[in-house]
Amino acid sequence: MSGPRALFLLLVAAIWLFADAHIFVYHRFGDDRYPSTNTSIAELKREFEYLKRAGYRVVKMKTLVEALKRGKDIPDDWVVLTIDDGYKSFYEKGLEIFKEYNYPFTLFVATKPTEKGYGDYMSWQQINDCSQYGEIGLHSHAHPHLTRLNRDQIEQDTKKGIELFKKRLGFYPEYYAYPYGEYDDRVKKIIKGFGFRAIFNQNSGAVAKESDILDLDRTALVGKSDIARKLKLKYLKASWIEPKEYPKDSILKRIRIKIYEESPYAHIYVTDYGWKKVKVSEGKIEFNPGFKLKRERVRLIVKVKDSKINTKILVK
Ligand SMILES: [Zn+2]
Fold first, then answer.
1. Whole-number Cα distances in Å, 137 to 107, 286, 296
2. Residue 264: DSSP 8-state
3. How far is the CA of 84 from the centre of ligand 1 (A)?
4. Which residue has the higher pLDDT, 261 or 11?
5. What is the pLDDT of residue 160?
6. 9 vs 281, more confident
7. Average pLDDT over the chain, rounded to an integer
8. Angle at Cα 132 formed by Cα 60 and Cα 116, nearest 5°?
9. 113: cis peptide before it, omega within 30°?
10. For 237, which of 75, 144, 260, 313 could close a Cys bridge (C-beta 3.0–4.6 Å)?
11. Max intra-chain CA distance, the chain
């Protein structure tokens, strides 16, 4: 082996030294009516070709979850692919590409649209067909904004979803992905109560041995994605001390984080305000931005060493 291919493999090997496993999330395929959630078939093939050529192994969710449960090191070349919402475009256009590459997937289904037979969603029969090639997880029943619901409403929605899984697919769902990727400590605690083996958010990042199996990061792939750059993200172990939730007055007064990584400084990202460099002392970050939050959904990200990240989502 010589020339460009050898160089390519060398570059890939260098990336592996610095990466964790990655879970990606797709929504629609070949459906340009919805550019913000769509991946064209040409783009999907380009991404799959990249994964193949760079030597990544697309593994089943089950493989990753079992390794995490056993506390094993997570291989750097593992990639897990997930698809949210159960849109028909996956069945009609995306699935054959997954089959062509022999890539397993986990489909996260919101049960209400399918049960009601809404036109844009797969039928139960189609979801059953998909289960020959992939795993099926729960993505709520009615796809609500969970942080706006009380405990009883969250439990009712989840119970309905679980009942429909048992009735239509014949099993209790093992995985749960938050609708819109929106959650907070209260929501997390309620969803945890249902005994799912793994729970997924929609925060860009990576999965390492230390990841919380009930709060796993998934990086979105929509439109034209720089998948190579997303594969370089690494998991940063961090505890978000403050804020715990969206501030009532929309003023982000103080951010306090404990990070489990030696670094003299970190960068903090706040939606609409970009990245700010902050000091770290003895693993603690205290930053008093005083930002007025402008959107109902805001991401706070802490990053060290260029690519180790941890995200906190705040939802009004
Ligand atoms: Zn969704």
1. 6, 38, 27
2. S
3. 5
4. 261
5. 98
6. 281
7. 94
8. 105
9. no
10. 260
11. 62
Q: What stretch(es) of the chain map to CATH 3.20.20.370?
A: 3-234
Contacts of 225 (CB under 8 A, 6+ apart): 39, 43, 47
Q: Tell me the C-alpha distance between 18 and 102, whole Å.
A: 26
* Cβ-based burial of 155 (10 A; exposed 0-12, middle 13-18, buried ≥19): middle
Helix (H, G, I), strand (E, B) or coil at 154: helix
What's the gap in Å between 85 CA and the centre of ligand 1? 5
CATH superfamily of domain region 238-315? Immunoglobulins (2.60.40.10)
Q: How far is it, in rounded angstroms, from Cα 195 to Cα 188?
A: 12
Q: Using the mean position of ligand 1's atoms as its centre, give its distance from the Cα of residue 302 in Å.
A: 25
pLDDT in tens, 47-73: 999 999 999 999 999 999 999 999 989
pLDDT at 11 over 60: no
pTM of the model as a whole: 0.92
Amino acid at residue number 30: G
Q: Where in the chain is the domain with CATH 2.60.40.10?
A: 238-315
Structure tokens at 14: 């260098």
How far is residue 209's CA from residue 151's CA, in Å, rounded to a whole number? Answer: 31
Whether the CB-CB separation of 268 and 275 falls below 8 Å is answered with yes
Beta strands 78-84 and 22-26 are parallel
Q: How far is the CA of 143 from the centre of ligand 1 (A)?
A: 7
Q: How far is the CA of 182 from the centre of ligand 1 (A)?
A: 10
Q: What are the pLDDT digits (tens) for 153-207?
A: 999 999 999 999 999 999 999 999 999 999 999 999 999 999 999 999 999 999 9
* 7 pLDDT tier (thresholds 50, 70, 90): low
CA of 140 to the centre of ligand 1 (A): 9
- Distance from chain centroid for Cα 189: 18
Confidence bin at 4 (pLDDT 50/70/90) = low
The CATH class, in words, for 3-234 is alpha beta
Measured CA to CA in angstroms, residue 216 lies from 155, 165, 201 at distances of 21, 22, 6
Distance from the Cα of residue 188 to its chain's centroid: 15
Residue 2: per-residue pLDDT: 53
Residue with tokens 């679980």: 162
